[in-house]
Amino acid sequence: MRPQPYNFFAPTGKSSTGCFNEYHIANMIFTQIDKEIYDFCVKKGITYSRFIDDVTLSSQQDIKLDLPGVIIRITEGGFSISPSKTSYKRELDITGISVGNNSMNPNKKFFDKLQGPISEASKKGMLEYLAESKKDECSPRSSS
Questions:
Q1: Would the CA dihedral through 31, 35, 36, 38 be positive or negative?
Q2: What are phi and psi of 8, to 5 degrees?
Q3: 111: CB partners within 8 A, 6+ apart
Q4: Is residue 32 helix, strand or coil?
Q5: Which residue among 36, 37, 42, 130 has its CA within the 20 to 30 Å range from the CA of 79?
Q6: What whole-number distance in Å separates Cα of residue 110 and Cα of residue 108?
Q7: 3-class DSSP state for residue 9?
Q8: C-alpha to C-alpha distance for 46 and 90, rounded to whole angstroms
Q9: What is the pTM of this model?
Q10: Burial of 29 (0-12, 13-18, 19+ CB in 10 A)
Q11: CA-CA distance, 28 to 23, in Å (whole number)?
Q12: What is the pLDDT of residues 34-61, one digit of tens each?
């Protein structure tokens, strides 16, 4: 008997977003592109990192002239780059944390966002809160 392939989709036919699936799917899809971009970046002295489909490049030197080499590898892999989500900065803000030269500083919006979950967890207890949030995180949603 052949093992059945894992179904990454909910019974509705929509993928579960925000769930553990995204990390695994992205890692399977990006493996070859990651290697090509990583090899290119190492030669140029650039640090490459990726979280799901968010790519970050960093270096002590200006990398503006090296960006086309990374963009070519991404687009040749069949992916596109969203200009509205692309930025070139000296200091980077990742999900409410300002990342600088040897520093990470959460901003006010980041702290405000944590207030609700911290309050809920303290009321319910951490284990109950985490169990409930895990259920919500893995529920099917539209990926649009």
A1: positive
A2: -80, 0
A3: none
A4: helix
A5: 42
A6: 5
A7: strand
A8: 14
A9: 0.54
A10: middle
A11: 9
A12: 999 999 999 999 999 888 888 888 888 8
Residue 6: left (phi > 0), alpha (psi -120 to 50), or beta? beta
Asked if 82 and 76 count as a contact pair (C-beta separation under 8 A), the reply is no
Q: How many residues does the chain have?
A: 144
The rounded radius of gyration (Å) of the Cα atoms in the chain is: 19
Tokens 């300002």, located at residue:
98
pLDDT digit string, tens, across residues 90-128? 666 666 677 666 677 777 777 777 777 777 777 777 777
Angle made by CA atoms 64, 70, 75, in degrees to the nearest 5: 130
What spatial distance separates the first Cα and last Cα of the chain, rounded to whole Å? 37
With a CB cutoff of 8 Å and minimum separation 6, the contacts of 57 are 41, 46, 47, 48, 63, 67, 70
Residue 97 identity (one-letter amino acid): I
